[in-house]
Amino acid sequence: MAPVNMTGAVVAAAALLMLTSYSFFFRLSEKKKRKEKLTMRNGLVDAIGNTPLIRINSLSEATGCEILGKCEFLNPGGSVKDRVAVKIIQEALESGKLFPGGIVTEGSAGSTAISLATVAPAYGCKCHVVIPDDAAIEKSQIIEALGASVERVRPVSITHKDHYVNIARRRADEANELASKRRLGSETNGIHQEKTNGCTVEEVKEPSLFSDSVTGGFFADQFENLANYRAHYEGTGPEIWHQTQGNIDAFVAAAGTGGTLAGVSRFLQDKNERVKCFLIDPPGSGLYNKVTRGVMYTREEAEGRRLKNPFDTITEGIGINRLTKNFLMAKLDGGFRGTDKEAVEMSR
């Protein structure tokens, strides 16, 4: 065999190996790209949840314990309430209490309003928020920037019919009434007609806050709607369990509606009854006393003589002086009273 032919065979083999290798890595690259596409979040709703746990180094090193924080601020709406907004709207749509084109109403001056305004359009719905007029104007501006309508009302007791939460409930009823009348075709150019003793009586209808095309209303009712609790029992709790690989000793959280504390505590203790769950409560809230003493009053007050606002606190969105349906689902081992000073120190 001539040497030249031999050389040619080696070169050909080498070239074949190079082409095969190139093809192999190309397929790996394509497979990797397909995998990356699968891990992308499909729209805003899919981007909610699965937030990371971070080790809080300063506290972990100071205590000798591994102290982790769940980064709920990484949700699109900036808080844990995104999970609640999704669950509330999904369950309402599935149950037929809400339809695309409907209005989701809520009385809220905080994160829930922002989350509902963020999430509702993803389901083809609109959002109407009623807030007290002593809330920061920036909150109204954020909610309106997200496409929701905002109704500011004067602050009154929750027992008053014009408390912002009660007004939000009425607005949902009004939207349902408007949609019902439209479906029945009982309106003509804004004139409502009724027959009394055989005579037609025309009554000019008060202008509505909502358009005639609205398909109905649904009051989110974040405090009493157990979709709040379920969002955390089915989502946040399992995430924490998975991220810690079940190696968790205790869970601590504050409570406003009580949904986060209830859902996570019940899930973790259902997985392992040795996991301890605790409430951290701000000044002025009665939950700490209820958890630790069984009654919702403070040492400074006699039972049945509570002041309306016995304390002032810099914290927002946590602490309450009544028991909600969501909070009653919690499985707690105890509670702690936190101070504003401690809150500020921990934030830094």
UniProtKB/TrEMBL annotation:
This protein's record includes keyword Membrane: yes
Gene3D superfamilies, per the entry: 3.40.50.1100
Catalytic activity as recorded in UniProt: O-acetyl-L-serine + hydrogen sulfide = L-cysteine + acetate
GO biological process: cysteine biosynthetic process from serine
CDD domains (alphabetical): CBS_like
Keyword entries, A-Z: Membrane, Pyridoxal phosphate, Transferase, Transmembrane, Transmembrane helix
InterPro entries assigned: Cys_Synth/Cystath_Beta-Synth, P-phosphate_BS, TrpB-like_PALP, TrpB-like_PALP_sf
EC number: 2.5.1.47
Transmembrane segments: 6-28
One annotated GO molecular function: cysteine synthase activity
PROSITE patterns: CYS_SYNTHASE
Protein's UniProt keywords contain Cell division: no
EC class: transferase
One Pfam family this sequence matches: PALP
Required co-factors: pyridoxal 5'-phosphate
Domain Tryptophan synthase beta chain-like PALP: 46-347
Family, as annotated: Belongs to the cysteine synthase/cystathionine beta-synthase family.
UniProt-recorded name of the protein: cysteine synthase
Species whose genome carries this gene: Arabidopsis thaliana (Mouse-ear cress)
